[in-house]
Automatic annotation (TrEMBL):
Residues 395-425 are annotated as: Disordered. This is Heme biosynthesis protein HemY. Involved in a late step of protoheme IX synthesis. It comes from the Bacteria. The lineage of its organism: Bacteria, Pseudomonadati, Pseudomonadota, Gammaproteobacteria, Oceanospirillales. InterPro entries: Heme_biosyn_assoc_TPR_pro (IPR005254), HemY_N (IPR010817), TPR-like_helical_dom_sf (IPR011990), TPR_rpt (IPR019734). One of its GO terms (biological process) is heme metabolic process. Pathway: Porphyrin-containing compound metabolism; protoheme biosynthesis. Residues 406-425 have a biased composition (Basic and acidic residues). The chain crosses the membrane at residues 42-63. Keywords: Cell inner membrane, Cell membrane, Membrane, Porphyrin biosynthesis, TPR repeat, Transmembrane, Transmembrane helix.
Length: 425
């Protein structure tokens, strides 16, 4: 009730104001068309103008209401089709997840034209066709996905590369991924797939160059990086060392190698072997000397004892190490071999026997047997040969052997011989 009173008072106030304005501001409208003219007061003309504006507004709205229903219907129909397409897309994705590949492909393709995300439909349909083994159909869906959506090259390429990997076609996948890598530098998924492909095709050089990028993007842990780097450099050195003329390539790998890998015993042995095969034993000797001074390892000691650079100098160095490690069996064996190279037979015997006392070993026994045979002490030589064979036999796998009982069941050689004679007669 209070609001109504306020509205009435406000209306009266506005009416009084306009009445005052009409009395205090006289004027008129004069409209002349040819010989005809229309004249009215200013305020009445203003009211007519306002009324004409309201009539025009309602006429336009009426016309719009007549024209719009078709547009509204088309818009409603489009929304309804899109809604149904989204429902079918969801059903297709569910079927894809459940492994019903055929139904998933059919549902997703049928819904693609009306879907607001046709890229998802065709990519998922391509995956469903791939799982069915329909590779040509899968490629058609990928091509359609690329046509329906601008900027879909990366998604389509990644999907295609993943399919090639699963089809055991790593070379084709590598070509696609290299193209994507040039277009999208350091794309995480591209780098991950590149790592997978390099490992599958044993492309160690490609993996070696990829590892720093993977680490920079934090796509591998430090532990995984070290494992991959070790494997890549090991395989590359082994491959290049097969041909002694590739020694410069091996040198380059060693120079490029991270510092922590240069202390790895296996890589040191491989590098020294490559140097020896390329007739660069002096460099191998310096490498082994330096490595043994900083990191003692039996494998390096053994390789050092087999070198033939300057045996006298090598023996002096080995005997200095022996002062620090007097009971090292591998070092004693190396000293014995170096003593043989300079013709110190008795010293070699002493070193070999000391090594044998510290750790009985078939290899040391063989060295002793050979040396005693050369010195004419055949009884001792036969003794150590027997020890060597016995130690070798202990390392053989446990396998069944003919027993005395089985031997008794077999005819002896004389019986076999008599039967053979009778048959021949």
């Amino acid at each position: 009730m209070r609001k109504l009173v306020l509205l009435i008072v406000a209306g009266l106030a506005v009416g009084a104001l306009f009445g005052h304005l009409m009395m205090s501001v006289p004027g008129y409208w004069l409209i002349r068309v040819g010989d005809s003219s229309i004249q009215t007061s200013f305020w009445f003309g203003l009211v007519l103008l306002f009324a004409a504006f309201i009539v025009l507004h309602f006429v336009l709205r009426l016309l719009s209401g007549i024209i719009r229903p078709m547009g509204r219907f088309r818009s409603w129909n489009s929304r309804a089709r899109n809604r149904r397409a989204m429902q079918r897309t969801v059903r297709g994705l569910v079927a894809l997840t459940e492994g019903r590949w055929k139904k998933a492909e059919k549902t997703l393709v049928n819904a693609a034209d009306d879907s607001s995300t046709p890229l998802v439909n065709y990519l998922s349909a391509a995956l469903a066709a791939h799982y069915q083994g329909h590779h040509v159909k899968s490629q058609e869906h990928l091509n359609q996905a690329q046509l329906t959506t601008d900027g879909a090259d990366t998604a389509v390429g990644l999907m295609q590369a993943q399919m090639m990997i699963e089809r055991q076609q790593p070379e084709e996948a590598l070509a696609i991924l290299n193209r994507l890598d040039k277009q999208l530098s350091n794309h995480p998924q591209v780098l991950k797939l590149l790592k997978q492909v390099h490992l599958s095709v044993n492309d160690w050089e490609g993996l070696r160059r990829l590892i720093p990028r993977l680490a920079a993007q934090k796509l591998i842990t430090q532990q995984e990086r070290e494992q991959l780097e070790f494997k890549a450099y090991r395989e590359l050195i082994v491959f290049e060392a097969q041909n002694p003329t590739n020694i410069e390539r091996v040198r380059g790998l060693w120079a490029d190698m991270p510092d922590y890998l240069r202390g790895n015993t296996e890589l040191i042995v491989l590098y020294s072997e490559a140097l020896i095969q390329a007739n660069e034993e002096p460099i191998a000797e310096r490498l082994l000397n330096h490595s043994l001074d900083h990191h003692w390892d039996a494998r390096l000691v053994k390789r050092y004892g087999l070198l033939n650079v300057n045996a006298a100098r090598q023996l002096v160095k080995a005997e200095k190490w022996l002062q620090e490690r007097p009971n090292d069996p591998e070092l004693l064996l190396a000293c014995g071999r170096l003593s043989l190279r300079i013709g110190q037979w008795q010293k070699a015997l002493e070193y070999f026997e000391a090594s044998q006392r510290q750790r009985p070993n078939g290899e040391v026994c063989a060295e002793l047997a050979r040396l005693y045979a050369s010195l004419g002490e055949h009884n001792k030589s036969q003794l150590y040969y027997r020890h060597s064979v016995e130690m070798l036999a202990k390392s053989l796998p446990s396998l069944p052997q003919p027993s005395d009982a089985n031997d008794s069941k077999k005819p002896d050689s004389k019986q076999k011989e008599s039967k053979t004679i009778k048959k021949s007669a």
